[in-house]
Write a structure and sequence with these properties.
The complex is a heterodimer of chains A (351) and B (169).
Chain A (H helix, E strand, L loop, with lengths): L2 H36 L15 H11 L10 H17 L9 E4 L2 E4 L8 H22 L3 H32 L4 H7 L11 H14 L11 H4 L9 H26 L8 H7 L3 H31 L7 H33 L1
Antiparallel strand pairs in A: 1-2
Helix pairs in contact in A: 1-9, 1-11, 2-9, 3-4, 3-9, 4-5, 5-7, 5-12, 7-9, 7-12, 9-11, 10-11
Chain B lengths: L17 H5 L1 H15 L23 E3 L14 H5 L5 E7 L12 E9 L8 H5 L5 E3 L15 E2 L1 H4 L10
Antiparallel strand pairs in B: 1-4, 2-3, 3-5
The chains are: A mainly alpha (351), B alpha+beta (169).
Organism (chain A): Pontibacter korlensis
Enzyme class (chain A): translocase
GO biological process, one term (chain A): aerobic respiration
Chain lengths: 351, 169
């Protein structure tokens, strides 16, 4: 790898890191705004124009609060918990293709931090590490509510990861690749996976909600019964990191769903746009930039959907959660695999 | 058993249809309801900047009026205190001394005049009882929230209309 490439990679990774943090910060603002709008209120509007500086005010408040560590807790693990949650959350956006390639001065710049041929596995591995943050934090707090929250987080993640993986297998059978870039490229134009995998998408979506601990699956932190669950004992910026990690996870889950099912950076009439511009390099760059906008539009729509659902549905009961995971989603996912396999065989037979 | 009223209904436990068991149609319905509220006009009034419009007969905080020459109109006759159903008004009367003609309109005046805003029900009967047109419930002021009970007893310092100071400003 040339040094120019290395430099570009470093800049790109920093940019993605910054964008991830920025989106997570403003997710808190939009969460509150959307909650307010759905409940016929106006939401935060005092800090800055339309309340846009509210996240900064919140962060400032969290930074200046007392950084409290309970006396009977395991101090090292107590500090490690939110760190792990945050680290793992920020790691997962590395393999997501946010755009196709730009050509600048003869150099080809791929808009993806790391291109690995096992991108999907990487995401799954890193995301399932995320639950360690909650587990460690909940365990180290030495508090029964925290421990219950941590146990719930672990069992819920295990249950729903199965169905998630199985629903993903159907996609992998169609694309024949584990690389997120290849999956994205195969969905050129409007040939998105959602048209072939509606059932798989719904299963994946439900599991993504469960993996992100979002309502209706927010049992690990259910503030009504477990007074905050795994983060009961946390305060100050450690609590902030947990909440932040949750929003980053939402962002990553949205990005993964857009990539796997909604054509990543592809948009309808992409080729028409490419042919409409005579200069091939300019055409490529314009299409790529519009693609990046399309990708982020899809991500934002998914983030909005996450929040929209949160302010609509009540929380599941714990036995209902387990029943849905094991008795409904997993059989459905297996059915989806069989249907997909049948479809692929039929296509081979007919054409 | 004989029914006590004719409103008794036979309860039956129906088997849920597939659509009901699938849960997704109900979720879609719920989402559409919340989305409708998302675009609804908000009822919030941005209070300090914006105040709710009050009725034209709205009664606010009391004021003790002065006449055209800036003299207090109140003669401490006590009719307002008698009329007050909540017994919120107390006063002590005093005699005007020589040289105070520019302060009080008549020979008798109120040395103290107190309205307990925790007792007051803002009925406006004091306003109706006053023969000297001295007390009014103004329409632009309210008794604000305070921390101490003592602070709700409004004395003359807060009730009497301030002198019009148009000169030397």
């Amino acid at each position: 790898m040339e040094s120019v490439d290395l430099l570009y990679k470093a800049i790109y990774i920093l940019a993605i890191f910054g964008i991830t943090l920025l989106i997570a910060t403003y997710s808190t603002y939009f969460e509150r705004k959307i909650a307010a709008f759905i409940q016929d209120r106006v939401g935060p509007n005092r800090a800055g124009p339309a309340g846009l500086l509210q996240p900064l005010a919140d962060a400032g408040k969290l930074f200046f609060k007392e950084d409290f560590i309970p006396a009977k807790s395991n101090k090292a693990l107590f500090i490690l918990g939110p760190g792990v949650a945050m680290l793992v959350a920020t790691m997962s956006s590395a393999v997501i293709p946010f755009g196709d390639r730009l050509i600048v001065g003869g150099h080809e710049i791929v808009l993806q931090a790391i291109e690995v041929n096992i991108g999907v596995l990487y995401i799954f591995g890193v995301v399932s590490l995320g639950v360690y943050g909650l587990m460690i934090g909940g365990w180290a707090s030495n508090n029964k509510y925290s421990l219950l929250g941590a146990i719930r987080a672990a069992s819920q993640n295990i249950s729903y990861e199965l169905a998630m993986g199985l629903s993903l297998i159907a996609v992998l059978m169609m694309t024949g690749s584990l690389s997120l870039r290849e999956i994205a490229e195969q969905q050129a134009g409007f040939n998105w996976n959602i048209w072939y995998q509606p059932l798989g998408f719904i299963i994946f979506l439900v599991c993504a909600f469960a993996e992100c601990n979002r309502t209706p699956f927010d049992l690990p932190e259910s503030e009504a019964e477990l007074i905050g669950g795994y983060h009961t004992e946390y305060g100050s910026m450690k609590l902030g990191m947990y909440l932040f990690a949750e929003y980053i996870n939402i962002f990553v889950a949205s990005a993964v769903m857009s990539t796997l099912y909604f054509g990543a950076y592809n948009f309808p009439f992409m080729e028409n746009l490419r042919q409409a511009i005579s200069d091939p390099i300019l055409a490529n760059n314009v299409v790529t930039l519009v693609g990046v906008v399309a990708m982020f539009t899809k991500i934002f729509l998914f983030i909005f959907f996450f929040m929209w659902v949160r302010w609509t549905l009540p929380r599941f009961r714990y036995d209902q959660l387990m029943k849905l995971g094991w008795k409904i989603l997993i059989p459905l996912a297996i059915l989806n695999i069989i249907l997909t396999a049948g479809g692929i065989l039929l296509k081979d037979y007919l054409f | 058993m004989e029914p006590l009223s004719n409103r008794r209904k036979q309860v039956e436990k129906k088997e849920m249809t597939f659509a009901e068991r699938a849960y997704l149609p109900a979720i879609a319905q719920g989402l559409s309801i919340t989305l409708k509220h998302f675009f609804k006009k908000k009822a919030t009034i941005q209070y300090p900047e914006q105040t709710r419009e009050r009725s034209s007969v709205w009664r606010g905080l009391h004021v003790l009026k002065r006449d055209e020459e800036g003299r207090e109109r109140c003669t401490a006759c006590g009719l307002c205190a008698v009329a007050c159903p909540a017994e919120a008004i107390t006063m002590t009367a005093g005699e005007r001394k020589v040289g105070e003609e520019n302060l009080y309109r008549e020979e008798k005046y109120a040395v103290t005049y107190e309205v307990n805003m925790l007792r007051c029900i803002f009925c406006g009967l004091c306003e109706e009882a006053c023969p000297k047109a001295a007390i009014f419930l103004q329409d632009d002021k309210i008794a604000p929230a305070r921390f101490e009970r003592d602070e709700f007893i409004y004395g003359k310092d807060r009730l009497v209309e301030p002198l019009k100071t148009t000169e030397t400003k």
